[in-house]
Amino acid sequence: MAHWLVKSEPDECGIDDFAARPDGTIPWDGVRNYQARNFLAKMAPGDEVFLYHSSCKRIGVAGIIRVMRAAYPDPLQFEPESSYYDPKSPPDKPRWQAVDMQFVEKFDDVVPLQTLKAQPELSDLPLVRRGARLSVMPVSDGEWRHILSLVNGRNIG
Questions:
Q1: Torsion angle of C-alpha atoms 84, 39, 34, 81, degrees rounded to 10
Q2: pTM exceeds 0.70 for this model
């Protein structure tokens, strides 16, 4: 099982959206960065994912979601009325991928970006590096455990 972090604005697709559908899935679509797309393509059912809220008042890791369906062609790339439409993406060789995710846990409070940046154990995490703007990124097992240890005072070994 791999671990990941995805970023979204909470009013677009946040942890509360997932919590409202605990037994359902939500497509993680609309990713239009090639490196982030490549990471989506590597996700597998069962992988756990931190959901990071950005562009909001309380920026940080808000909870955990799980990959339920591996990468498939993002249907929004073919919908002309979608803001994620890509006229250069042919249906027989689509450029963009989506995965389906499901709710696991909402944290009592977000783990703020400032806290994450202050952790030497997370110095290799793309999220805390200057200029890193990826919306999908891998998280090592050690980074995953360390971030979990920051949630609500958990003691993770």
A1: -10
A2: yes
